[in-house]
Amino acid sequence: MTQIESAKKGIITDEMKTVAKYEDIDVEKLRRYVAKGYVVIPKNVNRDIKAVGIGKELTTKVNANIGTSPDLVDINLEVEKAKIAKKYGADTIMDLSVGGDLDKIRKEILKAVDIPLGTVPIYEVAKIAKEKYGKVVEMDEDLIFNVIEKQAKQGVDFMTLHCGINKNSVERLKRSGRVLGVVSRGGSFLVAYILHTGEENPLYKNYDYLMELLREYDVTISLGDGLRPGCLLDNTDRAQIEELIILGELVERAREMNVQAMVEGPGHVPLNYIGTNIKLQKRLCKEAPFYVLGPIVTDIAPGYDHITSAIGGALAGYYGADFLCYVTPAEHLRLPNIEDVKEGVIAAKIAAQAADVAKGNKLALKKEKEMAYARKNHDWEKIYNLAIDKEKAKKMREEIPPKEEKACSICGEFCALLMVKEFLEKNKK
């Protein structure tokens, strides 16, 4: 029985108890949110991991993408990336590998980390089709659903599936006048399939069968935004919104069939359109958890897109996005290395915390209060422990050792806190 099915029947699962305790939320309230589809708990029945909740009134979660490419296949590197992502606070990992032995890579990552793992099955489908038939667009329905079922059996907790692309939305895309067309890798495979074969997207056409497969293993569907904008010029256009309307319909069908569902959102959105995008999704998709890539708020900062996405992520989280997919400094340039993964996770965690504080989340506010008092008391060990990057904070302070033990080397003996503290305490007395 899936989490949403249990919740509808009034059953509080162990996973709901774990999430409720971590989030400091009433477990019965959480059960109702799961039953309605406002919260998802991605956890395959074949995996033994700590449950993570994503959605309404919970802390904003962060996902880290890793995975090989045809240009670099190193399983050990990808496993290390997964471990680093978890160390610095990623709540979930997505394996986006398209190079090498994908089964082996996925199995090694599943073993290496005990947090939810997501995949995009169409990547493996495309790789097999290319090797077998010479072209990605020659993939067939049996291959698509066989790969999905295989990954579900292996223990994948959530899957990005581009079910909202159909023949109508492709026609809308053709008339849209977009600058960058389709930038979603998985989305491009399915758009190309439709254009090449004239056939309907198998994931859309056979959606009920797909739900049966996912329900068997309680795999959460992450409804992919295959027509998301790839630059600011293309944001919030007709093609994007057409797909979002379809995704809203598919959310309701997933809930009816007791499959947990969340919805993916755009990656390139200017600041003034972020609120609009979040509100549209929440309205059209009946409060389904919203999973956004960034969003990236300017296209002119290659090498710094972890910063551009953190800016967008903080605002998206404030307006109601529930799940931030990190962006690394290597975005648009190359496969990320371990340091890129670390920087991407930290930037996204900062964005998530900023959003949660703005929304009044009590766990986020508690952390801020603890940090304020740690600084007031010059409790440096506590400051380090509360920091998102503990090692960096400690290392930077110790690089120029302060003569005044309680201060740092910016002000030293002229520390503002120490200067005023003495007189404030006298006035209190």
Fourth CATH level, the homologous superfamily of the largest domain: Radical SAM ThiC family, central domain
Q: Tally of extended strands?
A: 10
Radius of gyration equals: 23 Å
Topology-level CATH name of the largest domain: TIM Barrel
End-to-end gap: 64 Å
CATH class wording of the largest domain: Alpha Beta
What structural class do you assign from the helix and strand content?
alpha/beta
- Give the mean pLDDT: 96
Counting DSSP H or I runs of 4 or more residues, the number of helices is 19
Enumerate the strands of the largest sheet in spatial order, edge to edge or round the barrel: 3-4-5-6-7-8-9-10
**N-to-C series of helices and strands:** HHHEEEHEHEHHEHHHHEHEHEHEHHHHH
Specify the biggest β-sheet. Answer: 8 strands, parallel, barrel
**Which runs of at least 5 residues are low in confidence (pLDDT < 50)?**
none
Q: Which architecture of the largest domain does the CATH hierarchy give at level 2?
A: Alpha-Beta Barrel
Global shape = globular
Tell me the count of domains.
3
Percent of residues in helices: 40-55%
Work out the strand percent: 5-15%
Task: Describe this entry's structure for a reader.
This protein is α/β, with parallel strands linked by helices and 429 residues long. The protein folds into three domains: 1-58, no CATH class; 59-359, Radical SAM ThiC family, central domain (TIM Barrel); 377-428, no CATH class. Helix content is 53%, strand content 9%. The strands form two sheets. It has an eight-stranded parallel beta barrel, surrounded by six helices. A two-stranded antiparallel sheet has the order 1-2. Helix 4 (75-87) runs parallel beside helix 5.
